[in-house]
Design a protein that fits this description.
The protein is α/β, with parallel strands linked by helices. The protein has a single domain, classed as Rossmann fold. Helix content is about 30%, strand content about 20%. It is built from seven helices and twelve strands. The protein has helices at about 10-20, 25-30, 40-50, 130-145, 160-170, 190-200, 225-240, and strands at about 1-5, 35, 80-85, 90, 105-110, 115, 120-125, 145-150, 180-185, 190, 205-210, 220-225. Helix 1 (about 10-20) packs across helix 3. It is globular and about 50 Å long. About 40% of the residues are buried.
Amino acid sequence: MKAEVVLTVSESKRLIARGVAAIPYIQERLEKGIIVVNTGSTNGAIYEELTGLSIDKRAYLTGRTTPASHKGSWPVEPMGDLVLVNGEPDLSLDRFSALEKMRPGDVFIKGANALNYAARVAGISIGHPKGGTIGGAIGTIYGRKLRLLIPVGLEKEIPGDIVEASEMVAAEDEALTPILSLWPVYGDIFTEIEAFLALTGATATPVAAGGIAGAEGALRLLLTGEPKQVREALALAKSVQGEPQLI
């Protein structure tokens, strides 16, 4: 059986967040272990799904890409990092101090700004001279054998190779504008595809993208599988449709 759905970027973020909450190793770490949810637009939805709380997701951002005409910030007080220890928020920890307490298998959740889905490579834009969050965390993530979970919407798929793009960005040349660095990262890539599979067993295949009237950046997905799986996937899509934009 098959069905087709359209998801806006905001709807995809909610879908991905629900899928992340259903990952078996996330459920295990909610029982015993540490999960760090870094700030980010998708991670704001993950914050809500893991805690059951409703937050102003504009307050749970660090770097962000906005239209050139947008000032890039809102009059909201930034929130602190969500660090869950055995399923409960630990306000004494942040993304970096938590790393020193984490053990193999604990989860560090970090969003991305670019994606090569087939190659399972993500790219993170870096504006900080010391590498920002990923620069300060990646050594400990590998050294302590932590899981790096990368929730990222398929709208961030780019046609070129992220590693090659990173090299182009870093090449010495005259720059007319500020240019962010691009850090290729490897981890557990989790998109709309993985979310539909985790929550319903259905296969989601992107077949078109883009739109108008709020569907700019949207995905058209073909859902296939057994009748029960496709019906559940269609119901899941309908349940996230209407998720408001982050404006």
